[in-house]
Amino acid sequence: MRPRVIVNVAMSADGKLSTRERRQVKISGNEDFARVDRLKAGCDAVAVGIGTVLADDPSLTVKSPDLRAERQREGRPEHPVRVVIDGRARTPPDASILVKGDGLRVIAVSERADPAKVEALRAKAAVITAGKDEVDLSRVLDELGQMGIRSLMVEGGGTLIAGFIRAGLADEIYTYIGSIVIGGKDAPTLADGGGWIRESDFARLVLADVTRIDDGVLLHWMVKRT
Ligand SMILES: NC(=O)C1=CN([C@@H]2O[C@H](COP(=O)(O)OP(=O)(O)OC[C@H]3O[C@@H](n4cnc5c(N)ncnc54)[C@H](O)[C@@H]3O)[C@@H](O)[C@H]2O)C=CC1
Ligand SMILES: Nc1nc(O)c(N)c(N[C@@H]2O[C@H](COP(=O)(O)O)[C@@H](O)[C@H]2O)n1
């Protein structure tokens, strides 16, 4: 059974995830970061693209000691399984996602990844090879499902999220819209890459909830199945 895919991003009022040079920006306030931590703690796994690892060096750990303790009481590991979608095996061996906090890591690579880099990563993570040039996200979800993962939070960035949407694999999207304008036509957005041209290809969403948080607003969308 494939995991349910829940996308979460924070964007500026003009829809940007970071600056045009891909520098991380604090968009969420404390209340929203706490919500993100709860969402992550409720999921079996959390994924980012290699672009986010190289730009932000996130750890993707659960930050709240109470939430980590709750997971352990429930017989779950302290942190969700941390997953990097990394076609060419470019994850640095000292990346925070590999060295901070206990628990399983999964790196999903394509057949084009350098075998020596893949072998080096195997010392720190389970490696899934799926897809010829790009990572085949559908196969990755199948493999994660076989590992018992039922829910996957996708934290970004925009290229990876577009990949999940394009493949029809995203189930829910949380967008926190903060009270800043970042600007720049080349700054990352929720769904980067080539985008879609035909209206029939656009993902269709149903608005499930709207909540004021900090100085912004949280939108919770369900992705319509076509
Ligand atoms: N505000 C927020 O909530 C967040 C912001 N960000 C920002 O996003 C930026 C990074 O985003 P991106 O550069 O778009 O990188 P990304 O994190 O989306 O990674 C994209 C890369 O993943 C690899 N990939 C392999 N297979 C793929 C597939 N099937 N589909 C898509 N990608 C695949 C490709 O090498 C691709 O270039 C950073 O500036 C970061 O700060 C990232 C996460 C959350
Ligand atoms: N939810 C949210 N709000 C913001 O304002 C952000 N800048 C981000 N960024 C993403 O959060 C991840 C950080 O992970 P760790 O704290 O290192 O575990 C990372 O993927 C950022 O891009 N998110």
From TrEMBL:
Keywords: NADP, Oxidoreductase, Riboflavin biosynthesis. It catalyses: 2,5-diamino-6-(1-D-ribitylamino)pyrimidin-4(3H)-one 5'-phosphate + NADP(+) = 2,5-diamino-6-(1-D-ribosylamino)pyrimidin-4(3H)-one 5'-phosphate + NADPH + H(+); 2,5-diamino-6-(1-D-ribitylamino)pyrimidin-4(3H)-one 5'-phosphate + NAD(+) = 2,5-diamino-6-(1-D-ribosylamino)pyrimidin-4(3H)-one 5'-phosphate + NADH + H(+). Pathway: Cofactor biosynthesis; riboflavin biosynthesis. Its EC number is 1.1.1.302. One of its GO terms (biological process) is riboflavin biosynthetic process. Residues 3-219 form the Bacterial bifunctional deaminase-reductase C-terminal domain. One of its GO terms (molecular function) is 5-amino-6-(5-phosphoribosylamino)uracil reductase activity. Signal peptide: none annotated. Belongs to the HTP reductase family. Homodimer. This is 2,5-diamino-6-(ribosylamino)-4(3H)-pyrimidinone 5'-phosphate reductase. It comes from Methanoregula boonei (strain DSM 21154 / JCM 14090 / 6A8).
